[in-house]
Specification:
Elements lengths: L35 E2 L6 H10 L8 E13 L4 E10 L6 E7 L11 E8 L5 E8 L9 E2 L5 H14 L9 E11 L2 E7 L5 E8 L17 E13 L2 E13 L1 E3 L2
Parallel strand pairs: 1-2, 2-13, 4-6, 7-8, 10-12
Antiparallel strand pairs: 2-3, 2-5, 3-4, 5-6, 8-9, 8-11, 9-10, 11-12
Length: 256
């Protein structure tokens, strides 16, 4: 039955190297103090892999990188664990990442293509001094499931299905983190425990058919931030919760 999915998922990263390059960039932000400008190469996957595998080569340097602004989400503690630069390989299934920090705690939207300027530190992160992105609109939602644990979220979904149009949350916009799965041509967002077993599930609906969901293949985890409208649909007379997706952003995850 398509409503029951039990997943055992593991994360995978590939490793390779990149030779850095110093050059000028067409970016609108100030690159005058940059030691290594990777925006000319514009291959964030290989660039970030190089950062991960050869961090000693960049210590003390100021770098500029085009990458996706993202986060590592802690599914055990139900919170954003750290902010990262994210690079996807050409297939979209494998990632490279590096932690970033800012002084003011402000970061680009999750999923935004961003030009970052920052300094490599000896503590395993890049101190961001400037960034530029065209995606500056504030994303709106009525319900933020960011700090609901698995039990609370499952109860929330069950109560919503029970109340349906009588629920105060009917057709409200929700922000929720989970793992994208697919079965019988349908896409779902599922919660996983630290052993990789399903804790909750909700169907995803893309009305335009144009959204870019994380690649679902093999036994890779496909965590994502979803923003969309909460609704209900029926199958054989049984109601199920559904999210009409407006925005999806790939994230990374940890379980402890």
């Amino acid at each position: 039955m398509k409503k029951t999915i039990i997943m055992m998922l593991t994360a995978a990263l590939l490793l390779c190297a990149l030779v850095s390059c110093d050059s000028e960039s067409s970016s609108g932000i100030d690159l005058s103090g940059v030691d290594s400008d990777f925006t000319i190469i514009n291959n964030p996957y290989e660039t970030l892999l190089s950062f991960m595998t050869n961090p000693q080569d960049y210590q003390g340097k100021t770098i500029a990188v085009n990458a996706i602004s993202s986060v590592v989400y802690n599914f055990d503690k139900n919170r954003v664990d750290r902010h990262i630069m994210l690079g996807l390989d050409p297939t979209g299934c494998c990632n490279a990442l590096y932690e970033i920090r800012t002084d003011d705690g402000k970061y680009p939207n999750i999923g935004a293509d961003t030009t970052f300027v920052g300094n490599f530190t000896g503590d395993g992160y890049i101190h961001i001094t400037d960034f530029e992105t065209a995606d500056t609109a504030e994303r709106q939602y009525d319900i933020d499931a960011l700090f609901m644990n698995a039990s609370e979220l499952n109860s929330f979904i069950e109560k919503y299905i029970e109340q349906q149009s009588e629920s105060q949350y009917f057709e409200q916009k929700i922000r929720i983190f989970g793992h994208v799965a697919e079965a019988s041509g349908y896409k779902y967002l599922v919660g996983l425990d630290s052993n990789g077993y399903q804790t909750w599930i909700i169907e995803l609906y893309d009305p335009t058919g144009s959204l870019s969901f994380p690649v679902v293949s093999g036994n890779l985890v496909n965590p994502a931030e979803i923003i969309g409208t909460l609704s209900v649909y029926y199958e054989d007379g049984t109601p199920y919760a559904c999210i009409t997706v407006e925005h999806i952003s790939k994230v990374e995850c940890v379980f402890s």
